[in-house]
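Subject: for your reference before the review

Hello V.,

The reviewers asked for a structural picture of the protein, and I figured it would be easier to keep everything in one thread rather than splitting it across files. Below is the amino acid sequence we used in the manuscript, unchanged from the supplementary table.
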Amino acid sequence: MEVKKLISREIEKVPEPYLIEVLDFMRFLEARSLEQKRELAIASETSLKKDWLRSEEDEAWRDL
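And here is what came back from the structure prediction:
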């Protein structure tokens, strides 16, 4: 069975007051994922910076 279906079934059993906590946790996971992607992008930028700043790169992208 798909995980989403399992979660849906379990959600139906959760008392209303706990649903707010479940929603908060889901939003936390989403925010953490976005933060990790942002950190990866920053790390990539640092490591690729030396290549991006070369004159050959400027020439390759000039016509775009």
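For the response letter, the relevant points are probably these. Residues 16-52 form the longest helix (37 residues). The mean pLDDT is 87.

Happy to draft the paragraph if you're swamped.

O.
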